[in-house]
Design goal:
Length: about 400
């Protein structure tokens, strides 16, 4: 009996110690949790702390960093890495060169916490986005990734709460952990590479993302394994080429698939444009018309013909572009313009007007891209055109 009494007493001591430690654990958990966060958000923060800080040296301004305009950068092999952004935000065109040096990388945390940032236009020169490169930019609603990007780092777009859709170009081979976590507005993402690798839960707990990709691709496998809706893209891809006639410059070299044609920030008007699609694999043609100063909307032209004028000093003010042909129902055509006093306007689609009318404002730049029908838009689509 004495032996049994000692055992009971021992167990009571152990139990009391456990109970006394329990409040300490609860208090510690409460201290680590943002009081404004829900249970769902807490899980995301736990994932963030475990997977977005891997002990790497963060890109930051150092004694070797160089300041130029809105950017701080470090010199690396073959070019430079942007390590910090000091601009006012809005829709930002990251330059392909700074001080004559090629921009190859966006460093860790380079745009971290820029609440004024609403859009990013990435040049084809950029090969990688560092960890948390655009982390916690809640008003970022338009992201156009250049056709040279290879890797997207962990948490690159974590917290882009206004982002609804994004296109991942065919050049991207790897996407890091939680790259698009805590992006509650995101509905669509399109992958144009059959073999892109995915590091863990790139979407976190975002419930409604539909993945577009090719049948049998890694995107297809990822969607299946993570119970994500998947939509198959047609195997044929349409390339679109375009060239603009620019004030004081003349005809620029041809650009392709969303690359900027024209200028940005130089105050130079677009005067003419030629557009052509590679329709060797699909039966489509491209048609377009422009709104010209003192003339208005010109007649529709197609397949590389000039719309606008040359040698008359007249500005383009608006544009409409559309596809036609047997396979037209398989693709969507998106385009947006850089307009005087507006900057980059939102993306227009399938023949809708882009730019302005009746305001006397010049177009300065343009981007055009063809994507499989119903796949992700390349950016915001709310306001592509304004008329008086």
């Amino acid at each position: 009996m004495i032996r049994i009494g000692k055992q009971v007493f021992s167990w009571l001591i152990i139990l009391s110690i456990g109970i006394s430690l329990l409040p300490m654990a609860v208090i510690a958990e409460g201290q680590n949790q943002d009081p404004g966060m829900s249970q769902k958000q807490t899980i995301e923060v736990i994932d963030e702390s475990q997977n977005l800080d891997l002990g790497e040296d963060l890109s930051e301004i150092s004694t070797d960093s160089i300041h130029s305009g809105d950017y701080w950068y470090d010199i690396i092999a073959g070019g430079i890495r942007i390590v910090s952004y000091a601009g006012s935000g809005g829709n930002v065109d990251i330059p392909a060169t700074i001080d004559g040096k090629t921009v190859l990388e966006i460093g860790n945390d380079a745009f971290n916490g820029r609440t004024s940032l609403t859009g990013i236009n990435l040049p084809n020169s950029v090969k990688s986005l560092g960890m948390r490169s655009f982390y916690n930019c809640p008003n970022l609603d338009s992201v156009f990734l250049g056709n040279g990007l290879v890797t997207i780092g962990n948490g690159s777009f974590w917290g882009a709460k206004s982002l609804t859709s994004i296109i991942i170009p065919h050049t991207v081979t790897a996407i890091g952990y939680a790259a698009f976590t805590n992006c509650p507005a995101q509905k669509k993402i399109s992958f144009f590479n059959n073999a892109t690798s995915f590091d863990g839960q790139i979407f976190g707990l975002v419930p409604e993302v539909t993945i577009f990709g090719y049948p049998g691709s890694t995107a297809d496998s990822y969607a299946y394994a993570n119970l994500r809706p998947f939509v198959s893209l047609p195997s044929s891809y349409v390339d679109v080429y375009y060239s603009t006639h620019v004030q004081n410059v003349g005809w620029q070299i041809s650009k392709k698939n969303g690359t900027i044609s024209g200028t940005v920030g130089q105050g130079l008007r677009l005067e003419g444009i030629k557009i052509l699609v590679d329709n060797s694999e699909v039966n489509v043609v491209i048609q377009y018309q422009t709104h010209v100063q003192n003339i208005g909307w010109q007649p529709m032209v197609s397949n590389g013909a000039i719309s606008g004028t040359t040698g008359l000093g007249l500005r383009l003010e608006g544009i409409k572009i559309e596809l036609d042909g047997v396979d037209v129902g398989k693709y969507d055509l998106y385009y947006r313009v850089h307009a005087q006093n507006f900057g980059w306007m939102d993306w227009a689609k399938n023949g809708a007007s882009a730019g302005t009318e009746g305001k006397g404002l010049r177009l300065e730049g343009i981007q055009i891209i063809v994507v499989p029908i119903d796949s992700a838009a390349p950016g915001a689509t709310a306001v592509p055109f304004v008329s008086s």
